[in-house]
Design a protein that fits this description.
By secondary structure, this protein is of the alpha/beta class. The chain has 20 helices and 9 strands. It has 3 domains: 136 residues, no CATH class; 72 residues, no CATH class; 174 residues, Restriction Endonuclease, CATH 3.40.91.
């Protein structure tokens, strides 16, 4: 008897969040199964926003403590560090075939993993520094196990990948073999063959027989040629990017279309006025996540500052590595580790008090860039002058978006026009600075 396919139920369904993946800062995992995504510790090293930096420091601290315990012979302590790494059942990432096992690293696998680390020359010599390098250099350690370790620390949407960024296969095939081909050609040894046209070659299959891919070999190779590993990591850094919301749908059993038109329809259905301010605030929270991810991430609603005496409607960490949010500092000289948004569900234009409220949240520590989001700007010329006044008084930079702006940005996001979104933001800055 063929078993019927179980309908996938996602976290957003279970809790009635009413949001699709683009409006969420976390992976919308299925609560009744797993999806084949993995948390990659190397992804944490690529980002500069404060939350990722703190998370990366936690990973470094844990891994350093583990390696130090092994090298010092404190095996009981190392075993405790590993045995406690049970993948949370709620994570739902990895290879489970049915349901979610939350298998993580139990006692038996902890012993196997500890043996792999203890027997590794990379660990014994103290050369292994990064958890991300373990898949590359240590036999018996896979992407799934590295993900399990990292997941016990944190699970952001921007850190999941289909596979690790750094892999033994890729490094071996794209860097090691290329290097060895050049070395043998230079030496003109027995591996060099001359073709009928006179061209000298070293066949990759011959290299693979002489230098089979093992993690022990890769460790020895990287000790002799550390510049190649550094070059590989630099290349990975340049190409790496978080998965977008459409890509996060691919591993799901029931992939869902991302309907950005629904955002615009939802916005039109929210009336103006204070009685609908919460609905408007919740909508803008999700819309901004959809538009600006992955440059903006880790959103916080009603974040308190000044010991709770003031609040910011929406705060994002600035994780922009490219584009407008990366260029705020480099091109415009605006310090902005955090990006602030205030939402005003007014039927009239926000005035100076509302703009001053936003700029009053700026500081030399938090940053000096924010956006006022409102329903309509009737007097655009006056609004622009008010924003220029804030900038000319050296109080920071404030932009103002209305419904039409949000809809335009959502349309560009639907078309994956990231360049268009960046142009839109730069044009807003140009109007302010010219």
């Amino acid at each position: 008897m063929v078993k019927s396919k179980v309908k996938e139920i996602r976290l957003s369904d279970h809790f009635g969040l009413g949001k699709a993946q683009p409006g969420l800062d976390f992976v919308d995992i299925p609560v009744n199964g797993d999806i084949r995504l993995f948390v990659d510790p190397y992804a944490f090293t690529l980002e500069n926003d404060p939350w990722f930096v703190d998370s990366n420091n936690l990973i470094i601290d844990y891994f350093s403590l583990l390696i130090e315990a092994i090298r010092a012979g404190n095996i009981d302590h190392a075993n405790r560090l590993l045995t406690n790494l049970h993948e949370p059942r709620e994570t739902h990432l990895g290879f489970s075939a049915v349901g979610s096992s939350g298998r993580g690293i139990g006692p038996d696998q902890a012993t196997d993993l500890l043996d792999a680390l203890r027997n590794s020359q990379a660990v014994q010599t103290g050369k292994l520094k990064d958890l991300a390098d373990a898949e590359l250099l240590i036999p018996g350690i896979s992407a799934d196990k590295i993900s399990d370790i990292t997941t016990n620390i944190i699970l952001p949407k921007a850190a999941v990948r289909f596979r690790p960024e750094i892999t033994a296969d890729e490094f071996y095939n794209r860097y090691v073999l290329d290097f060895l081909q050049a070395e043998h050609l230079k030496a003109n040894d027995a591996l060099v063959q001359t073709l009928k046209n006179g061209k000298r070659v070293v066949r990759r299959n011959d290299l693979k027989k002489r230098y089979p891919l093992t993690k022990e070999f890769l460790f020895e190779f990287t000790q002799a040629h550390p510049e190649l590993l550094n070059a590989y990591k630099a290349q990975v850094r340049d190409r790496s990017r978080p998965l977008d919301d459409e890509e996060l749908e691919w591993p799901h059993q029931d992939a869902r279309d991302v309907d950005y038109d629904a955002f615009a329809t939802e916005l039109d259905a929210i009336p103006t006025g204070t009685q609908h301010a919460t609905n408007y605030h919740n909508f803008i929270f999700g819309a901004l996540e959809a538009i600006f991810y992955p440059s903006l991430r880790y959103p916080q609603k009603e974040e308190e500052i000044h010991e709770g005496r003031k609040r910011i409607d929406i705060t994002f960490n600035n994780g922009g590595r490219f584009g407008f949010f990366a260029e705020l500092a480099s091109k415009y000289g605006v310090f902005c580790p955090f990006i602030f948004f205030e939402c005003k569900n007014y039927s009239s234009d926000p005035g100076n008090p509302e703009l001053d409220q936003l700029s009053g949240r700026f500081s030399d520590k938090r940053g000096k860039f924010g956006v006022m989001v409102c329903r309509e700007i009737k007097d655009k010329a006056t609004m622009l002058k008010r924003c220029k006044d804030i900038m000319l008084d050296n109080r920071g930079v404030v932009l103002v978006f209305d419904d039409d702006d949000i809809k335009s940005l959502l349309k560009m996001r639907a078309e994956k026009d990231v360049a268009g979104i960046n142009r839109f933001m730069h044009e807003q800055m140009r109007r302010l600075t010219m």
